[in-house]
Structures are given as structure tokens and as C-alpha cells.
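Reagents: none. Just compute today. Aldehyde dehydrogenase.
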Amino acid sequence: MADYASLVDRTRTVFFNGKTRSLEWRIKQLKQALLMLEECEQEIISALATDLHKCKFETVSTEIKFAEGEVIELLRHLKEWSADEKPSKSIVNILDKVEIKKEPYGVVLVIGPWNYPFQLCVIPLMGAIAAGNCVILKPSELSSATSAVLAKIIPKYLDQECVHVVLGGVPETTELLKQKFDYIFYTGSTTVGKIINNAANKFLTPVTLELGGKSPVYIDNTADLEISVKRILWGKCVNSGQTCIAPDYVLCTEEVQNKFIEKAKQILKEWFTDNPKESPDFTRIINEHHYQRLVKYLNNGKVVVGGDSDASERYISPTILIDVKPTDPVMQDEIFGPILPFINVNNAYEAINFINSRDSPLVLYIFSKDRKVQDLLISQTRSGSVGVNETVIQYCVDTLPFGGVGNSGMGAYHGKYTYDTFVHKKGCLIKNFNKLGEILGSCRYPPYSDKKLSFIKLLLTKEPSIPGIKYIPHLLAFGLGVLVTYGVSTALKVYKLKRI
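Predicted 3D structure written out:
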């Protein structure tokens, strides 16, 4: 096992030398990342085919192009996002300079998952670099082919002093977590997320935890069922359901459920033929452990669609379960596979009660034409985000923060939120030694009096809005200039009169 303490110390020394703070350096790294995505596309496609039997279409659209879009967004706005902010000022600081500076944390640890093993490593990596940090990346050992590609190509394109890739499994990750990092970004399960958080607490290291959970789907009888079934099934089948924001289970009436099943049979046949196992577009389960875990769920409730499996290929067909009890194993943990259980409810209120009786999900999906029903579910439940009449696509809107709440995670990223995640916003108050400022501030000095207290209360009063307050420093400066000019002019006149 490598000497991780030495690795972190060396990397921190590079950070303190100031190499990564340069905007030019950061821009160069982002441009190098775009070159890496272009020149190494085939290697990435091959690695994901090895790890997950993922087809070229899914790899390019959900891994490479998504990562590329985030890097382009960072490049496009980096100068703007990294600029100092000029917040509003109150009366007490009217003569002062008030700024918010964007300061990189230092050495960041990024721990990636296996389900989208490329983009979920590259996006936080590039966000941390854009913010001016050094990074140690630990990709998942379960997606070993993709991790090997990352370890191979990143040193070729990015600064080897500032960016390091560490391979290995649980022992290596455990040893890494013993080191003091300045920020930790983790994507993965809630169980491991708690371990990461406990390790970070030792050093009071801030963390972003992108976890998962059971993301529910509510469908009412106003929804366009033809479109709804396609969008829900696509969200469940992409990457064979191994997506943290995949629809986990459906809440609806028995009538809607039965109509859904009939349409699902037709659509799945159109997409994957009668035998999805032969389709080149259907991903496999990552490893034997997860395959066996998912196969056990097939015994819960009643299989009405799919239910086929093949251990030799770690294949499980798109499956729908009905007559599922809330206490069944399939309803306890995040499924993370192509299995979709149905729970019957009579209305939105019952759905809300069911959702609120469980841990807060990463996403809530609502399929309804009724705006009142949409608003009711959004306002009366808690989730990381919401998708109305759509699944998964909300993840692609880079102007929306993506992240969980409660058991589904903490912190958010994507677009500007990625950049903001990796910077500390340092508030700065900058005063000078002008006499007028000292006169205004002298009321804080002892000995105290009621007169001074009255003046302090005036200065500290928070007004909702004072028209023209931003011009007060200029008026004061102008007034002081007039007084000085008037004083000098008067003194000269008196001097001349005395000479006469």
C-alpha cells in the first residue's frame, strides 16, 4: 500500500506554493480535460463495455458528453464565478470596502462510484480544479476497467503535481480516510456515506455526500399514460436501473397500475424485443454480489412483467412487481436494478403519507396534469429534487442544484453549484485610516454614554431599503472635500487680511 500521508503532504505543499490559484493554470487544465475527452473516447467506451456491458450510445450520452458539457460550462463562466463579489453594505460600514473572495479549500479527496464510473469522477474532479484545488481521485474498484483508464489518461493530460489517481479497494480507501483533507466529495451509498462522514469529522473536514435512496413515482389518472410509461421505464432501464436517481417504486391506484402494465409490455418489446438479454442496448449488473441481491427481490410480491435472470451474464430483465408489501425487502433499501415494484394508494394524500413515513428520497417523480396535485406533492414532501412528468432528465439541467437531503445526501453540485462547492467564500472588510471614518466609529470607544449608545443604535439599525444609500460615501467624501476646500480658502483670506 502506498504512503498516502506522504502523498497528501506533497500535494498540500504544491497547493501552498500557489500553483493552482492562477486562473491561467485552471483554464489550461479544463482545456486539457476537453482534449482528453476527445482523444480518449474509444478507450472510455471500451472500459464501460467491459465493466457494465454498457453500449456506446449510453456511454457517450450519459458519461462522456455529460462530462464534456460540465467542463465547457466551467470554462465559459470561470472568470465570472471566480471574481470577487461586492455585497451590499449597511450604514455602519458605509465608508468601508466589503468583498467576498473565492478561496480554494486546498487538497480535495474525490471518491467516485461504479455505476457511472467516468462522469461521476470527472465532473467533481474538474469542479475542484476549476476552483483552484489540488485533487486526489479515488475511483471505484468495482468498475476496474474504467478506473484503470482514469489512472492511465489523467496523468497524461492534467498536471501530475496537482492531480493524483489512487487505485484500490476498501483497505486503500480506509487508509486514505485517515489522512487530513481540506474537502471530501463522495458519491455512493448511504451506508458508506456515513463512514466517510465519520472519518471527516475527525478533522472537521467539510464534505459533500451524493447518496441515493428510494425515489418514488406517483401517477394519477390524469397523466398521459402512453408518455408516462415510456419515461418511467426509460428512467428505470437506463444503465439497467443502476442509477441513483432511477425511479425506485410506483405509487398509484390499482386501475392505473393495470393500464401501466399493459402498456409496459408493448413498450419493452419495442425497445428490447421479446428477449432483452439479446439486446445490445441493455446493461448488465456490475458484479455477482449485486446480482444475487437483486435476484432475491424477484421473490417479493408477484412478477407480472419480466422476472428473467442469468447468473452467467449477471443479467436481470426489466421487471415489474405487484402485490408488494411495504415491509418486503424490495421496499427497504434502494433497489439499484431493473426491478419496479408497485404499491397501491387511493389518492395523492395517501401517497404523501407513504413517502413521508420513509427517509427523504433523492428525487420525487410526479406524473399528473393537475397542477394542484403537483404543487401538493412538492410542498408536502421532502426530497433532494423533483421531476414532474419526467424522470432522470432533471439531472441534466446544469442551472439546477443536484443533491440530496437527509439520508439521500448533503451538498449540491452541477454548473455553478459545482464551482461553489469547492470554494470557501471568504468575507473581507477593508478599512482605511480616513478621519471621517474614525469620527463615525469613535462612538464605540469608552468611556460609554447614552449619547454614544444612541449613535451606535442608529449606525446598527437595519433598514429594509434606503434609496441612494450607495451614494452616501461619495456625498460624505464630497462634503468633506468642500469643508476642507472652504477651510483652506477661508484661512487664506484671513491670512491676506492680516498681512494688509
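The mean pLDDT is 93.
Action item: order primers for follow-up constructs.
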